[in-house]
Structure formats: C-alpha cells, structure tokens
Amino acid sequence: MSAPHQMIAAAIQRERNRAGKSLSALAAQAGIAKSTLSQLEAGNGNPSVETLWALAAALDVPLSLLFETQAPATTLIRGGEGEPLESEQSDFTAVLLSRCPPNVRRDVYRVVMQPGQVRRAQPHPRGTVEHMLVCSGQMRAGPDGQEEILQPGDYYTYPGDRLHSYEALHADTLFIMVMEAP
Questions:
Q1: What pLDDT, in 10s, does the model give residues 100-114?
Q2: Residues in domain HTH cro/C1-type (predicted)?
C-alpha cells in the first residue's frame, strides 16, 4: 500500500467513524459502491478526484482532510511534482499544494487541464468559496449559468457550494484553485 493510499484510507475511516456513519450509509450518501468504499478504507484502489470529493462532501469535510498528515514548517513543490489526483470525467489533473491546518479550511491546488471535456463539480459543503487564478492557457469556469472565460492573469471567485464546472479551451491550461470552507 502506498503512502497516499494509507493516508486516504486512515482519513476516510477516521472521518466516517467521527460522523457515526456505517460503510453502507457513507457509500450511499457519496453515490459510490459499498465495495469501492471498503477497498478505499483497506488502502486499495486508485480513487478519482470525483470519488474523493464525493466522500469529503458526504462527510462534510474539506477534501484536504483526506490527506491529513503533520505538515512540515516549510514546503517546496516544484512544477511537475506532487501527488496527482485525476478526474474520471475529463483530462483534469489536480495536485494538492497546501492542506488546511486545524481550524482553518483552505485547500490550494495547481491544476493542469486539457480541452475536450467539461469537468462538472458537485456542490462542496455549504459556504465553500472557490478562487481561480489562470496561469496559462484559457478556460471557462464558474457556477452553472455564471461561467466566465478566463485568460492568464484572470482571477475569479464564486460559491463552490453550487453546481459548477471547469473547461480548458487551450491545451495544458494551468490554473491555481483555492477552496475555502467555513
């Protein structure tokens, strides 16, 4: 079992127990198979970003809590490094750059996305706000009905607790996404 899989397995089990949910109840609420959840808690499988976000939403915790470890005083992640989370819906790869410290709910991601498919995101926990900063390429992002076309240097913030989407309009679109939750 790899270190990220161990971390995710322990965090899912810890948060499921904290929430007082059975394996069946959490799987149903997250919209995944009970066998899939069982495999993830055993440290097996390779969960997609959608699966992890669905579990985090069902547990009412930020996604970064599923990667909880003691953070070092300094962190340097060079471009192209980090543990990627891949989408099942589109060519979308996110790398968690910074997880929230206790009592602060903020996640920072470096995301590279390819054109061709829209990544539709389910609402995150109530009060979540997303911040997008496009570094290169071009994309369309935002809540349903309020999507905007973003160019390099454009910043867009919107409620992440509503249906929203991301779509790369150029190859290798790179953006920074910050998710904040109360």
A1: 656 667 888 999 999
A2: 12-66
